[in-house]
Write a structure and sequence with these properties.
single chain; alpha/beta; Carbamate kinase; 8-stranded mixed beta sheet; 15 helices; binds adenosine-5'-diphosphate; binds aspartic acid; binds magnesium ion
C-alpha cells in the first residue's frame, strides 16, 4: 500500500469520456490498496477562455462574456449529464456548476463596469475552471460508488499575495493539509483537489501561474508525505524533445530532479518548472505517465541522474524572446554596470532567462521574454542615463526574432567533446549561434539562435541526442 498523489492535466479532462478514463485510473489504484489524492486542472481550453474573456470585459466587450458564459455552461452541463445519472445527484451537481458559472458572469460584469482587470480579479475569475472540473470528477466517482469529495485548494494551499504567480507558505499549508486532507485520505475517501489555485491567509483567491497544477500537486504531495507523485498527461512521458516539434521524439525513462528542472525551465511544457521544489527534500519519486496509455512505464524522476551511455538527453526551445545587449568601450573597468542593469530589470519584475558576458567586458547580454523587452530596455536606459550621456555605455538594444535552444543532460560539463559535437552539428547545418551560455548547473547548455534557424537547430541537435552520436 502506498500514498500516491495523482495530477491530471486539462488534456486528460477534456470531456465526459476522458473524465471517465481518469476516474478509472483513480479507482484502479485505490482498489490496489493505495491512498490516492487527486489534483485536477480545468477542462482543456477553459483557462484560456476565462482569461481572454475577462480581458475582453475590461475593454468593455460584454458580448464576449455573455457568449463565453453560455459556452462554459453548455460544455460543463453536457459533461455533468453524461457523468452523473442519479437524478438527485445530477441536479445537485448542475446547481453547483450553475452557481460557479453565474459567479464568473458577475465577475466579468464588474470588470466591464470598472473597465479594469486587476491581477487579483483575474485570479478570482480563472480559478473557476478548476472548481468546475474537480466537481465533475468527484461527482462521477460518487456515482461509481466511491467516497469522493471535491475540495477547493483555497482551503488548503496558503500563499503569498503575489497574484498570478503566488508562492506557497509551506508550513501553513502543511498544517491545513494535515488537518483537512489527511484524515479524509485515511478514512478511504478519494479527495479531488483543484490544481492551480490557492488563497492568502485572509482567504483571497490566488493562482500559482499558468500550468501551475503540476506545482499544486507537488505542494500537496509534500504536505501529505506522499510516497510518489504521478503527473498524468497526454504523452508517454518526458521526451527527448517536444513531440509536436519533432515526431521522432522518444520517452526518456529516467531523469534527475536537476535535469527535469532545467528542461522545464527552458521550455518543456510537460512539467511546471516549480513542481520539483516542494518534493526535493523528501527525495520523492515523480512519475510522468500517459492518461491515454496508462500501462506505459513513462518517465521516472529521481533525486540523482542515472548514468547512461548518453550525455545529452533532451532538447528544448523557448520562442518569443528578445536578446538585450548593453555595450560600450567605456564600460571596461567601470564597476557595477552589470549589477545595476540587473537590479533595474529585476525591479520591473522581468525574469532573465539566459545571461552572457563577453570576456572583454565591452558588452554583456541577456534574454528576456518578448513581452518584457520594451519595459526592460527602458528601465536600463533610465538606470544608465549618466553612463550613456558620458558615452561609457554606447548602446542598449533588443534583438528580436531569436529563440533559446537548450541541451539538457547530466555530465555535459565533465565529458569532453560534447560541446564540440554540438557546434560541429550546427556548423554543418550552417546555423549561426549568437550567444552560448553554459547553464549555472552542469546539466544544461543554452544557445541563442535566429528564429529562422531554430526549428532546424532543434531537429539537428535532436538527431544527435537520439542517435547517441555524441560522447559516451
Ligand atoms: P497537461 O494538460 O497534462 O498539463 P501540457 O499541455 O501542459 O499537458 O503538457 C504536455 C505537453 O507538453 C505535451 O503534449 C507536449 O506537446 C508538450 N511537451 C513539450 N516538451 C515536451 C517534452 N520534452 N516531453 C514531453 N512533452 C513535451
Ligand atoms: N488550468 C491552468 C492553466 O491552464 C493550470 C494548469 O493547467 O496546470 O494554466
Ligand atoms: Mg500542464
Amino acid at each position: 500500500m502506498s500514498v500516491l498523489t495523482f495530477k491530471f492535466g486539462g488534456s486528460s479532462m477534456g470531456d465526459a469520456r476522458l473524465i471517465r478514463g481518469v476516474a478509472q485510473i483513480v479507482q484502479d489504484s485505490a482498489a490496489n490498496g493505495n491512498e490516492v489524492l487527486t489534483v485536477v486542472s480545468a477542462m482543456t481550453g477553459v483557462t484560456d477562455t476565462l482569461i481572454n474573456t475577462a480581458r475582453a470585459a475590461a475593454k468593455g466587450n460584454t458580448d464576449a462574456y455573455i457568449k463565453a458564459t453560455a459556452t462554459l455552461r453548455d460544455r460543463h452541463h453536457e459533461a455533468a449529464r453524461e457523468l452523473v445519472h442519479n437524478p438527485a445527484a445530477q441536479e445537485a451537481l448542475l446547481a453547483e456548476l450553475h452557481r460557479l458559472i453565474d459567479g464568473f458572469q458577475n465577475f466579468c460584469r464588474s470588470v466591464a463596469i470598472l473597465g479594469e482587470l486587476t491581477p487579483r480579479g483575474s485570479d478570482a475569475i480563472v480559478s473557476i475552471g478548476e472548481r468546475l472540473s474537480a466537481r465533475l470528477l468527484a461527482a462521477h466517482l460518487q456515482e461509481l460508488g466511491a467516497a469522493s469529495l471535491p475540495i477547493d485548494a483555497t482551503n488548503l494551499i496558503v500563499t503569498t499575495g503575489h497574484f498570478q504567480s503566488a508562492m506557497p507558505l509551506m508550513d501553513k499549508t502543511r498544517a491545513r493539509v494535515q488537518e483537512i486532507l489527511v484524515p479524509k485520505l485515511k478514512a478511504g475517501i478519494l479527495p479531488i483537489v483543484t490544481g492551480f489555485i490557492g488563497a492568502t491567509e485572509d482567504g483571497i483567491t490566488t493562482t500559482l501561474g499558468r500550468g501551475g497544477s503540476d506545482y499544486s500537486a507537488g505542494i500537496l504531495a509534500a504536505c501529505i508525505d506522499s510516497d510518489e507523485l504521478w503527473i498524468w498527461t497526454d504523452v508517454d512521458g518526458v521526451m527527448t524533445t517536444d513531440p509536436r516539434l519533432d515526431p521522432s521524439a522518444q520517452v526518456i525513462p529516467v531523469l534527475s530532479y536537476r535535469e527535469v528542472g532545467e528542461l522545464a525551465f527552458f521550455g518543456a511544457k510537460v512539467l511546471h518548472p516549480k513542481t520539483i521544489l516542494p518534493v526535493m527534500e523528501q527525495g520523492m519519486t515523480i512519475q510522468v505517465r500517459n492518461t491515454f496509455n496508462p500501462t506505459h512505464p513513462g518517465t521516472r524522476i529521481q533525486p540523482e541522474p542515472e548514468v547512461l551511455g548518453t550525455v545529452a538527453k533532451a532538447i528544448t526551445i523557448i520562442p518569443d524572446v528578445h536578446l538585450i545587449t548593453v555595450a560600450g568601450r567605456g564600460m571596461v573597468g567601470v564597476p557595477g554596470i552589470a549589477g545595476r542593469t540587473f537590479s533595474a530589470v529585476a525591479r520591473e519584475n522581468v525574469n532573465l532567462l539566459v545571461i552572457s558576458q563577453s570576456s572583454s567586458e565591452q558588452s554583456f547580454c541577456f534574454v528576456v521574454r518578448a513581452s518584457d523587452s520594451t519595459r526592460a530596455v527602458r528601465a536600463i536606459q533610465r538606470e544608465l542615463a549618466e553612463e550613456i550621456k558620458l558615452q561609457n555605455v554606447d548602446r542598449v538594444w533588443a534583438l528580436e526574432e531569436v529563440e533559446i535552444i537548450t541541451i539538457v543532460g547530466a555530465g555535459m560539463r565533465e565529458v569532453p567533446g560534447v560541446a564540440a559535437r554540438i557546434f560541429t552539428t550546427l556548423a554543418e547545418e550552417r546555423i549561426n549561434v549568437i550567444v552560448i551560455a553554459q547553464g549555472s548547473s552542469d546539466v544544461s547548455m543554452s544557445l541563442v539562435v535566429n528564429s529562422g534557424d531554430a526549428q532546424r537547430a532543434v531537429q539537428a541537435l535532436h538527431r544527435l541526442v537520439i542517435n547517441g552520436k555524441h560522447a559516451s
